[in-house]
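Give me structure tokens for this 539-residue protein.
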Amino acid sequence: MPTLNWIGKEAVVNHHRQVPFHLLKDVPDLACGEPGEGNLIVQGDNLVALKALLPYYAGQVKCIYIDPPYNTGNENWVYNDNVNSPLMREWLGKVVGKEGETLDRHDRWLCMMYPRLALLRQFLREDGAIFISLDDNEIHALRYAMDEIFGPDNFITTVLWQKVYSPKNSARHFSEDHDYIVVYAKKAEVWKPNLVPRSEDQDSAYKNRDNDPRGAWKTSDLSGRNPYSEGLYPVTCPSGRIIAGPPKGRYWTISKEKFAAFDSEKRIWWGKTGNSIPQLKRFLSEVKQGVVPQTMWFYNEVGHTQDAKKELLQLIDFPDSESVFITPKPTRLIERIIQIAASPGDLVLDSFAGSGTTGHSVLKLNQATLDQEPRRFILVEMEPGIAREITAERVRRVAQGYKNVKGESIDGLGGGFRYCELGEPLFDESGKIRETVSFADLARHVYFTETGEPLPRGRVTKSPFLGECRGVGVYLLYNGILDDKSAQGGNVLTRAVLAKLPKFDGQKVIYCAGGLWGKDRLQAERILIRQTPYEIKVS
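Here you go.
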């Protein structure tokens, strides 16, 4: 398989494994609605934020949509091309080294994207998929990077989105009328797209010209070019005219017997006068209530960039024109993606949240399916001002209701979200667990690093027994969980401590400060000790 190489690749390919786990810190004043809604907005560097979210959501996300920097070279707006922002340059200097400060912008973009894409893959369910918006600047590099991370066999397609409704006559060479949306599945053989809801235009083709009690219908040709052994026979029109057979060079697509059966059921249309070439009536009530997704998405179906700006300006009062997002996406576009890739009850992730369109789109879709379990979203935004004043504020307004620029009251869509910032790393500079880390926090990270799976939702984290995974029981002794007030807080595995542990008949992994037993005794008890903090894996 061809591979992509760039300056800095060696430093970043496995960097996601080295990113330390951080805690999530709730900011209740910025939350909206009930905390149990299941929606989450996180402010912080999305690389660190994604690593912090893994113990909670690894393998649980059905649909990922990201709209990363297009890397157009535009330096006038930091959010649009933040591969050259001060924060990104600082990160590159630490991870890549001195050459990170002088990298070509394409090298910088790949250095930025690769570890983030590697982490994003870990969030997907086996039947999940990721959708990535991009233009011509990095589409080639993205495909190579995605092939390396996801595997070329898991490439699904590249969608073309018509993002403008009129050509740009000021263009130097060509008017750029489209963006790309690259689609990869976690496992292509497992992922199945949902049908796209039928449009009014598609349904309008169905009429009821003969007042058929079965409702609206349209005709389809009864002849085809492929030879059919039983496809040559005469038919008699209701008018009495005999048609010797199908048009020259064609064949009836059904047998004479099937034709007669359809005709008796009044499924054959002979024209208004009963004298025309027969056609088959296909009833709207019998067709699929959706269509297979296509790779061309036109602006009249999913919106364009001007639609997106108008939507945003209705919701957010920007202080000046330079603060307005240059390339927001219309909600109809993101709705289309979510409709294809996420069903009611599924989890949607956007780690380049920007103006919050993905959260807005999820709430819109939930409003249309109130009788079903709501979809949930996770949004991650790096810039503090944008996260608070635009991302969260937009989603809050569409959830609770707002007044648009005309002063009109717009009803809320319902829903809410938690708002979190990145807290301290799990470990301090010397590698010790921070004193502020709770048992519940450490339990989630221990269980994830041991099993590769999040601690099941609703699992009580007030017991040293965290749960069973693939036949192994996972335990954590930390912070006096057994109410032992000794110097070690009951964190050392002794005979007395073992007697207090919840029973598990099988192999046991016990995270603790240490043990006083020999190797033979541990083997007899089917116990594997992992010493905290040194054996808590970050990767």
